[in-house]
């Protein structure tokens, strides 16, 4: 049986790991963006797709871990995941349509 202090310690570790992952994805997206380092700007849509995926991952991490959705009912978590997929697919579709 897990106690409240065990759960709190696990939650604190998860927040730290999430923060590390968010920092890493931010640095990676910054590094990949044109004009920063050796990122090939000729990749175009593939590069933008990678940055959009990183943005979607960051949204999922923030909403799931910092907004405590990981403790929500399963139906809410599934609805959130579907909403995020639709949202980011629409944003990427709008980008592709406009270019």
Automatic annotation (TrEMBL):
Signal peptide residue numbers: none
Recorded topology in the membrane: Multi-pass membrane protein
Subcellular location per the Swiss-Prot or TrEMBL entry: Cell membrane
GO cellular component: plasma membrane
This protein's record includes keyword Chloroplast: no
Transmembrane segments annotated in the record for this chain: 14-32, 47-66, 78-97
Coiled-coil stretches: none
Organism: Nocardia bovistercoris
Designated name of the protein: Cytochrome C oxidase subunit IV family protein
Keywords associated with the record: Cell membrane, Membrane, Transmembrane, Transmembrane helix
Major localization class: membrane
């Amino acid at each position: 049986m897990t106690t409240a202090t065990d759960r709190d310690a696990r939650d604190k570790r998860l927040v730290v790991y999430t923060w590390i992952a968010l920092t890493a994805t931010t640095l990676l997206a910054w590094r990949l963006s044109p004009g920063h380092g050796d990122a090939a700007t000729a990749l175009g849509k593939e590069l933008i797709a990678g940055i959009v995926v990183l943005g979607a991952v960051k949204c999922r991490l923030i909403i799931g871990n910092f907004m405590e959705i990981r403790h929500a009912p399963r139906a809410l978590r599934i609805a959130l995941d579907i909403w995020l997929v639709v949202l980011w697919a629409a944003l990427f579709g709008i980008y592709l349509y406009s270019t």
